[in-house]
Amino acid sequence: MDTTKLEIIDLLDNSSENAKKIVHASSTQGFLMFEGHGFTQNEIDTLFKFSQDFFNLSVDEKNKYSITHDNAGYTGMGVENLEEDDLDRGYGDPKEGFNFANFDLRTGIPKQPIPEFWKDKMDIIQSTVLKLREALKRSLRLLATGLEIEGIDGIDAEWFVERHHDDHFSGTTFRFLHYPSPVNEGATEEEKEKFKDLNVAGAHTDYGTVTLLFQKEEESGLQLYSQISKKWENVPYVPVSNKYKSKGEAAPLIVNIADQLCYWTNGHLKSTIHRVRFPKELLDKGRDRYSIVLFAHPGDKTVLEPVPSKHIQSIKGRGASHYMEKHGISQTAGEHLNKRLESTYGWKY
Ligand SMILES: O=C(O)CCC(=O)C(=O)O
Ligand SMILES: [Fe+2]
């Protein structure tokens, strides 16, 4: 068996075996895939078309909506530096992004200035965010079940969901990313060679709890540092299974566990380091890469207290338990996030 293969979790399977499977994938590789997410290929193609058209606008137009300290808006080329081991290198990743943030998660409406371009497309943004949230909640229920989180009378499957409030402010961000090709079509092998090891998204872990990502079939490039093989590995494109093909669903979503869920579970669930590099096929074609990502976060005021699960509380000296032992109090999700944003962007709170 290939132990580094990413597990595909069916979000519509509520069995305890499936709950154990998601916990196993999340506590080993930290990267997995979801099917049963309910997105059609048509819906995903529409989002990628919007993304391409948006990033084709002039820099001046995009800069009118430059990113603000609440993490909403446009980040231009080189603005964000994800390279965790080199945070003061003085230049950022060669990519641009647009963040929808400050959501009312009951409606999927982001509170921020909306660029002209997006105004007549906001119903699609809203419905996509709500659908991704539904997938998130299904996964959080499976995780709580698999971790056997203790409630008053038995397992509390809603424990994480209740802490990812729909009606509280959170760091939840829906993000469009564009990585322009570093070479033109027909570039020489020598030119391409220079860029094949370039991190267009620096090696990093994500800040929230769970990250859900759409990647295009012919635009791979995401790589994870496998905690199993101790090597960088490509996140493959896996086509839709027969079961979900017949339901008209698109390929599985790519998923990774992020820092807050790792911290919250005392390191049991793994926030795995990942990066993006241009694959050879894209460099050969001189083609840009796009991805679309939901970074899920708990409500800002959610206290990241040690999770009431025997599996987690037996781990001492790490994450939320360690913080509690040291400070006598737990930090909130908002406090945890601000520390991360401060180091990525040099922001001070
Ligand atoms: O573009 C991708 O595939 C991954 C992006 C990513 O890891 C991030 O923005 O956190
Ligand atoms: Fe990431």
Automatic annotation (TrEMBL):
One Pfam family it belongs to: 2OG-FeII_Oxy
SUPFAM superfamilies: Clavaminate synthase-like
Record carries keyword Iron: yes
Positions of the Fe2OG dioxygenase domain: 168-298
Record flagged with keyword Metal-binding: yes
Record's keyword terms, sorted: Iron, Metal-binding, Oxidoreductase
PROSITE patterns in the cross-refs: FE2OG_OXY
GO biological process: small molecule biosynthetic process
Gene Ontology MF: a single term: metal ion binding
Similarity comment text for this entry: Belongs to the iron/ascorbate-dependent oxidoreductase family.
The protein, known as: Fe2OG dioxygenase domain-containing protein
Classification lineage: Eukaryota, Fungi, Dikarya, Ascomycota, Saccharomycotina
